[in-house]
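QA checklist item 7 of 12: single-chain prediction sanity check.
[x] sequence parsed
[x] length recorded as 256
[x] structure emitted
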Amino acid sequence: MSESKASSGTDGVSSKRPNFLVIVADDLGFSDLGCFGGEIRTPNLDKLASNGLRFTDFHAAAACSPSRAMLMTGTDHHIAGLGNLIEWTNRSDQNAPSEGEIKHWSTAPQRGMPGYEGYLNERVVTLPELLHDAGYLTVMAGKWHLGLVPERFPYKRGFERSFAHLPACSNHYAYEPQLNGQDQIPGFMTMSFIALHSEDGEYVKKLPTDWYSSNGYGAKMLSYLKDRKQANDERPFLPTSRSRLLTGHFKHPTSS
């Protein structure tokens, strides 16, 4: 969290509300960071850790969506509707296990049960909803995986602007040949849709040819903040960046 600089009032309390920058790394163990002894070079995060507050006692769920749901709502992930990954619990009939196979699918009985809706349900309020109602500009770029259809997109849960990676995973480049010409839900991804990304309330069906996820999400976040500056929008802000990749560049799958 970075705090806005402001002159103090007569009572010595800052007259401006703080800005928040939330960075969420998907499937990152705390010991992967340099400040916790990891081998990956993370100098910027290490600097934040040395100049700020570092937590050494924390808990997370065993999967990405449940942990993200708890961070977004401050509640147990079952209360928020993410008891498990939607890909495991709400599978379509075409890929549902047969009666003979169901014993091998430990999550199959969860399908349709309360707490396993597979998206942020209406029983919870999100942090961006609270801050947006309080006058904050709320934006995000990166992995969402808390609702796959337009009525569950980030803009419906408090984010004024958003560029979201919707499902559990995809290629980090603009290389998804199985989606070419797709105009309906693809069978290989039973809880998915016609595109892997959304911006605000619309699916994004085509990415730039030079797309690389970490660079793309970062650039999108910066564009939202630049728009704020150009519009002379003086609201405090909550930008949320959700990275999915922690390694260096690899060769693009379509390059020779």
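[x] summary fact logged: The chain has a mean pLDDT of 80.
[ ] second reviewer sign-off
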